[in-house]
Amino acid sequence: MSKYKVTVVIVNYNKEPYISQCIESVINQSLQPIEIIIVDDGSTDNSGIISSRYAAAHPHIRYLTQENNGVSSARNKGLSYAQGEYVAFLDADDYVSADAYERLYKAAVQSDADTAVGNFECFNEYRTWHLAYMKKVFAKGLPAVRHISTHKELHLTPSASNKLFKKDLLIQHSISFDEDLHVGEDLLFTQKSLYCSRKTVVENSDVLYYRVNDNEMTLSKNSTLSFFKQLVMVQQKVKSLYGTLNERSLLHEIEKRQAEFFFNSLFTKGPKLPKNHLNELLDISSSFLDTLVHREVTSSLDSKSQLLTQMIVQRDYEEFMNLMFSFCKDESINEVFLEEGLFYSSLAKTFPRYKQYLEVKHVEVEQRIEVIELKDGQLTLGGYAFIKGLSAQGMQKDLLFKYRGKEKAVSLQQDLRTDVSYIFSHNQIDYQDAGFKTISLNVLDFLKQGEWQVYIRLTVNDVTVEEPIKVMLAQLRNRTKAHVVNNIQIKTAFNTRSQMTISLKKVSMLEKLKSFAVQVKRDVRYDASFLKAKDYHTFLAILLYRMFRLFYVKKQIWLIGERKDTAQDNSYHLYHYIRKHHPNVNIYYVIDKQSPDYQFIKHLGNIIHFNSLKHTFYLLISHKTINSYVETSNMHTESYKKIMKYYPEWQQNEKIFIQHGVIGVSRVNHVLHKNRMNYSQFVVSSPFEKKHVMKEFGYSENEVIETGLARWDALEDTSTGKEILIMPTWRSWIKTEQQLFTSDYWKRYLSLLENEEFHRFLEQKNLTVTFFPHYQMQKLIGEFPAFHPRITVVKQGEETVQNLLRSHSMLLTDYSTVSFDFAYMNKPVLFYQFDYDDFYSKHYNEGPINHKKDLFGERVETEKEVIQLLKQFPHFSIHKANKIQNYVVKEHSHSNLLFNQLSGGNYE
């Protein structure tokens, strides 16, 4: 009998910032007793000291050390001391959920399984996500207990950290980590463990939180020949393992996965290698192909990988090198073209000798259904679809219904989607004709009874491609709930790949009642699931809505907010105006009670605390919701999102977007398009902006309100003529502190603020500078340098943006839309744009306003030019100031104008 149910081996190498979180997550497991073995692999930071302190304080924690020898060696050392019935492995920068090992252990014991597999969630500072391929491991319909020899999807989870391994299994079959491997060491270990395991149980829950650390420099992240040599070695050892087991037929899935990874690595890392290493890289690649038992797996790879395969087989060094460098430079390398009815990769034009290998036999269709509803027999549907890599110009789109050899087609009208070109090809391929206008179809008139499969058909140059319609989001699928019209039941169904069918069936009164009863039962089960999960917030919100909806809807409640912790922008100014001039309007401001801004707004009354039960309930019964940022991510509670996912038909409020800047410098239709956000009204600043939003965002003329921004009412110049504000925007490609400090972005602003000529100019002119770094920069930097006595760094919360704009005489920015506010007060703006091309390819899609020619201030690209123009302050940009009139509407009260538009004059 083992002393512990589970032993967790934690391997640490210089993980000081994260190791406490990792150890605490295991200490606080719901499963007890657990043994923790921390193996320090020669750390040089304080993580070893932290680990040893935990070991001293907890008798079930053992702390071991060794010289730096790699994760495999460290895991083996921990494994040799393990006393648990099962063993788990964990890296010191990851952590586990509170019941992770209880879930896995119970599943393993109940099924008498030697191994257990759970899911995991990846995360970094900005987001969390699941890996797409893991969906196949947890697909519906698969048994909980499996074996890797009969369930090929288990080959898709090579990580050792989301699993439990029975200690006796590892001893019996002499399974340990191969210490010669420094890349892919998990794959060999898990393959042997899962094969030798009598049973593997799969537990569909997140047990591991895997940190994606862009700062970390490991062999797998570096571009070196050693990395590729390690991949070859891994494959040779896996091949040898299955040869010993006499199961080489099982290698097919592993080789397919590894081949795809190897070729993807060639394209991402190969171009970064020195030119004189490419000959050896070709030899290594040839060795990798030689390890494959099932060479045919390469035929399932994409065209560029098949091209590379042929170059490797033919030892064509010159073209191999050309491909590496062309891939590094050419962003449109995935483009395809049509010739004599066949699709070819655009690489065929560059490498004509290999054209026969570059036919694309199965083109990919990219489609997204963004709008769908089935109500009273009417099917409403909208979105976009295109053939990947092929210009969508002139592409005909049809909606197709198929049933028992019969077809019914509806032509779809083209809709301009410049955002699709940006999202999918960085504007390298023209997809702007990919969109199709939302259609509404009476299915009772159009279709006969039967189960119809729904397709999208794309036609270009007499070549057609068809693909089943897919509705990926559950919230959209739930807008098509079954209902009965004229004794015909209309019902949709979606398979495991989200493909849609729509069925029509005549039903009797009894069948109609049964259908209604089934839906009620489903709803009750859904509501009760929150009670069972002890999510009382969501359960009570649903209960309150069902009981009091009719009463509260009559109150015409407006909810307004910005980010959950701010009250500074257009929403605040509109709210302040309404509370002062129209107190009879039931408007409520949503804000986090812990926010510093809460103190400045609470005296106005009608405050709702963010994420409170009242907040969720009022979202459900509100007449209007108003936000100056994206509403879904800044104003919705988690409970409200859960409710909307299942009951999307409950969303009846008008959604108003009043913006926080002027659109035009950047195209942001990829996040604000009508199909994505479905705003009832979209507030703009000028006729120019209205035209742009109508053309590219999918809104009709009566949905776009031209009132200007509410915060402009408070734009009163209080400067003395001696203050310069430096306020840059962010760069989305910067994710970490190290990336910031090595970026041209940081170096440019640092150099300017430390420039001695700049300092002398400030002293001579008796000027002051306020540097207000973007809040993302502030998150990465703890303390800013002391640049000069006349330069002050102001951080978020110390001053409002509004006050900064009012109290400064000149603005230096790069691309920030606060420049419009500043110019609104007829004050000079200087645009310092040293990375124009990068910004408008990596960060934003360039807007209709030409930032180089059409703005209301001087534009420069070098620090020398900045200082030269500053010396002309305040006269350098006066001659361009009148251009602001093209982009803003000036009114006595923008808030009054906006309120009258929103209220329709009902509150005079």
Automatic annotation (TrEMBL):
InterPro entries in the record, alphabetically? Glycerophosphate_synth, Glyco_trans_2-like, Nucleotide-diphossugar_trans, TagF_C
Q: Where are the transmembrane segments?
A: none
Every copy of the Glycosyltransferase 2-like domain together lies at 7-132
Q: Which UniProt keywords apply?
A: Transferase
Instruction: Give a yes or no for keyword RNA-binding in this entry.
Output: no
What is the top-level taxon of the source organism?
Answer: Bacteria
> Quick one: a GO cellular component term?
membrane
Q: What is its EC number?
A: 2.7.8.12
Q: Which GO terms describe its molecular function?
A: CDP-glycerol glycerophosphotransferase activity; hexosyltransferase activity
Q: Which Pfam families match?
A: Glycos_transf_2 (PF00535), Glyphos_transf (PF04464)
Tell me the protein family, please.
Belongs to the glycosyltransferase 2 family.
**Known PANTHER family for this protein?**
GLYCOSYLTRANSFERASE, UDP-GLCNAC:BETAGAL BETA-1,3-N-ACETYLGLUCOSAMINYLTRANSFERASE-LIKE PROTEIN 1
Name it: Minor teichoic acid biosynthesis protein
Q: Which organism is it from?
A: Priestia megaterium (strain ATCC 12872 / QMB1551) (Bacillus megaterium)
